[in-house]
Design brief:
- The protein is α/β, with parallel strands linked by helices.
- It has five domains: 7-162, no CATH class; 178-258 and 365-487, P-loop containing nucleotide triphosphate hydrolases (Rossmann fold), CATH 3.40.50.300; 263-352, no CATH class; 504-558 and 645-807, no CATH class; 561-642, no CATH class.
- 40% of the residues lie in helices and 13% in strands.
- The strands form six sheets. The protein has a seven-stranded parallel sheet with strand order 7-8-6-9-10-5-11, with helices on both faces. Strands 15-16-17-18-19 form a five-stranded mixed sheet, with helices on both faces. A two-stranded antiparallel ribbon has the order 1-2.
- The two termini are 61 Å apart.
Length: 807
């Protein structure tokens, strides 16, 4: 889009309107254009340069090629593929790609829907227009495509033009004296420009709110709407700005509205993603968020299907449509599913149903409110004072590159040889610079810029590139212009505003929270306290508060993209080892490795949380896991053979009691040794170093609890001696306790759980009396010394209540 949209001035009212495709179509009576269906053509272009990419990433490849094709059509010298003189390009990648795009355009034989009205108007002439659309000549054409320029030229030929210099705010410098010279790009010795560095974006917003208050208090402006607030294009800035300014009683006007959404199109796209197994983990959740009730059992049953042929897909979509609102149902029934017996073209269907980007709702002005401008939009009014924030990092200018399709030097080559200006980094920089000039030119009195030293995460930021350009205009350097906010409040250009203290303290006055009731039976099932698990008691050992929050269900349930993290990897490894090492004699070390790939496939198919790993995008990760599990399974089989051990049971559900509370859990595997002793093994990722330290210090929890539960079952066969331990999968070292026979189960000769038992006994007694002892800031380091990974302290709520240790 050009800096200023191609606009028309109504000959009677003087109203200025951008000439949109719909306005042009209505004025020239353009018939409804045929859909521009380019996705199928891109997929079918077997000799195109992106053909190999389609096999690896079909959706993103189709999206990139479709975007490049539409940009080419808008940039072509005429609305015809023959106007692109590909032959002028030398042999090479640029020519190969441009030729492929032109071939698709030629085969399609039509134009994108937004250009069809322009082609119709060009063919018909001025006499076909119902109303005059005189061109507004004063707008800037920076960033305009060939199609934009053709539209402007046609409007002037058909309807004439008019000049309206104040049509766009900031079209001419609004200041006076040195400010006008600065706005116009002239060198000046002095100016009313100030640049202040502050710690981070939140500090900037607070500073800007205080400055706005001072300007109003001192009558530097007559009303708030004479103050402009320029913010980076980042939703976080807009959200924080609204909160910070509201806290001091100032309103903001011109905030961009939420983007319009085509919920029916989103639902269709997500339904196809769910049906194409393995389904992305977030697809069902996104459907639920759209109001598509996947909790309906009949609908859920249909969504669990995986249609193979076009006929199966059509039948499934019709069944799903019966449970959905009319607009979504109609879109589903209208989908082209392919031939009855042909395989479903999942990639093509998902690509063509992907919802197009939607524009934000129109900016809403507000009388008596500070005018908000954003970096990527032109100013919508003129102001006397501008507070410009966030001049650091990738902002000012925020430049977009050419994307995945073109290289920057190819864009330059195509423009030089063919006269076609495709979007690229250079054009983006020119447009961003022109827009910043327009924003600064909309100010009549003074411009105050702030620069954050760090971002919201605390990482250091470099000053924005635009500051060098602004400094050059006044004959200085950016380093000279940027002044840090003084530590002395007497030199601040505004008063500090502190929030009124809230009644009472937000933090407890002691390390001990006294909640006045027994806390050991809060989690109930059928009216009875739920049993604990060994892992829950380990969390209790580290942090009573983290355990209590877990008992109350106050845990982080945020959603994120699928990832092969520690939890997923551990779950997969447990499933595979369970399948490869069933009860009985251990498998042959020479052959067990060959069974790993099939066991991984079975585990992924059986577990919903693992199914995303079946997708082609996770092939590399699957190979790495297969390699690791092959090594682990082979070595584990060797260790079992060396110890002459048999596998007594796996994933055995156990119950018992510990510290006066119910206990349950599943032991990963129980081995029977030649001397008749049972050995409980818990699989753990990581190395054995910390586990040895922990057991030698008496701080072990889980394995001993499993051993205690087994001692009271038939598995123990009336008093069979029981040993416990861990198999550390990274270094394949078994760390155990108890008298064992043979290698490689070398025991730790000490009471491995005495300290942990004593600590848990004390903690449970405190919980029964309603007391929770908070963790301190030193606990993580202290637990590390004991060989304990204090993951429970990573909980943000627990971290917020860490008690500061006194030095």
């Amino acid at each position: 889009m050009p800096l200023d949209p191609i606009s028309t001035v109504h000959p009677v009212t003087g109203a200025i309107r951008p000439v949109t495709p719909s306005l042009l179509a209505e004025t020239y009576l353009c018939p409804r254009p045929a859909p521009f269906e380019d996705s199928a053509a891109i997929l079918e272009a077997k000799t195109a340069p992106w053909a190999n990419s389609l096999e690896v990433a079909p959706e993103s490849t189709v999206a990139a090629a479709s975007k490049a094709l539409r940009e080419l059509i808008h940039a072509a010298p005429a609305l015809d593929p023959t106007s692109v003189e590909v032959g002028r390009l030398p042999e090479g990648r640029a020519r190969f790609h441009l030729t492929a795009l032109c071939d698709i355009w030629r085969d399609l034989g039509n134009l994108p829907e937004d250009l069809a009205p322009l082609a119709h108007a060009l063919a018909g002439g001025a006499g076909h227009a119902l109303d005059p659309l005189p061109l507004l000549r004063s707008g800037s054409r920076i960033g305009a495509t060939s199609a934009d320029l053709a539209l402007a030229d046609m409007l002037e030929r058909h309807h004439g033009g008019t000049w309206q210099e104040d049509a766009f705010p900031g079209l001419r410098p609004a200041g006076s004296g040195t400010l006008r010279a600065f706005q116009a790009g002239d060198t000046s010795e002095g100016t009313t420009l100030s640049i202040t560095s502050l710690r981070d974006p939140l500090d900037e917003l607070r500073f800007a709110a205080a400055r706005a208050q001072r300007l109003l208090d001192e009558a530097a402006v007559e009303s708030a709407d004479e103050i402009g607030l320029l913010l980076p294009d980042d939703p976080a800035w807009l959200i924080d700005a609204e909160a910070v300014f509201a806290a001091v009683g100032l309103r903001l006007g011109g905030l961009p509205g939420a983007p319009a959404r085509n919920r029916a199109a989103e639902a269709v796209h997500l339904i196809l993603a769910v049906l194409n197994k393995p389904a992305p983990g977030m697809a069902a959740v996104a459907l639920e968020a759209l109001g598509v009730g996947t909790r309906d059992s009949a609908l859920r049953s249909q969504l669990n299907r995986h249609p193979i042929t076009g006929g199966d897909l059509g039948q499934t979509l019709r069944a799903i449509a019966n449970h959905l609102p009319a607009d979504i149902a109609a879109a589903l029934r209208g989908l082209p599913c392919g031939a009855e017996a042909a395989p479903v073209d999942w990639h093509g269907l998902i690509a063509i149903t992907r919802p197009a980007p939607t524009s934000e709702a129109p900016v809403t002005a507000s009388r008596g409110a500070i005018a908000v401008f954003t970096e990527g939009r032109n100013p919508w009014c003129e102001v006397r004072r501008l507070l410009a924030l966030g001049f650091a990092g990738d902002h000012y200018p925020s430049v977009t590159g050419s994307g995945p399709f073109w290289l920057e030097h190819e864009i330059d080559l195509i423009e030089r040889t063919c006269g076609i200006a495709l979007p690229g980094r250079r054009a983006s920089l020119e447009l961003a610079s022109a827009r910043l000039d327009r924003q600064l030119a909309a100010v009549s009195d003074a411009i105050e810029i702030t620069v954050p030293i760090r971002d919201r995460a605390g990482d250091r930021l470099a000053p924005a590139a635009a500051l060098d350009m602004l400094a050059h205009r006044v004959g200085l350097t950016a380093e000279t212009l940027i002044q840090p906010l003084s530590d002395d409040a007497a030199y601040w250009p505004c008063d500090s505003h502190l929030a009124a203290p809230s009644p009472g303290r937000s933090a407890p006055e002691t390390r001990i929270l006294d909640l006045g009731r027994d806390l050991t039976g809060l989690r109930l099932k059928n009216g009875a306290p739920c049993p604990q698990s060994p892992s829950r008691l380990e969390k209790l050992l580290v942090s009573p508060l983290a355990w209590l929050l877990s008992e109350l269900g106050i845990e982080d349930r945020s959603w994120g993209p699928d990832e092969l993290g520690a939890m997923v990897r551990g779950s997969l490894m447990h499933k595979v080892l369970e399948a490869l090492f069933p009860p009985g004699p251990p498998p042959d070390p020479a052959t067990v490795g060959a069974a790993v790939p099939a066991a991984i496939d079975a585990a992924i198919e059986a577990e919903t949380d693992l199914r995303f790993l079946a997708a082609s995008a996770w092939a590399v990760e699957r190979r790495h896991v297969t390699s690791d599990l092959t090594r682990i399974a082979t070595r584990w089989a060797e260790m079992l053979r060396e110890a002459d051990a048999t596998i007594h049971t796996t994933e055995e559900y156990l119950t018992g009691e510990a510290f006066g509370m119910g206990l349950n859990g599943k032991a990963d595997t129980v081995l029977k040794l030649p001397n008749g002793r049972l050995l409980v093994i818990d699989y753990k990722s990581g190395t054995s170093k910390k586990r040895v330290k922990r057991m030698q210090g008496g701080w072990d929890v889980q394995a001993q609890l499993y051993g205690d539960m087994i001692a009271g079952t038939e598995l123990a066969e009336g008093g069979t001696a029981i040993s416990v331990g861990y198999l550390n999968l990274t270094d394949m070292v078994a760390v155990t306790r108890g008298t064992l026979v043979g290698e490689p189960f070398g025991p730790v000769d000490t009471d491995t759980h005495a300290e942990a038992n004593a600590k848990l006994s004390t903690t449970v007694a405190e919980l029964r009396e309603g007391r929770v002892v908070l963790n301190t800031t030193k606990d993580a380091a202290e637990f590390d010394k004991l060989g304990i990974d204090a993951y429970a302290l990573d909980n943000p709520l627990v971290a917020a209540f860490l008690w500061e240790d006194e030095e």
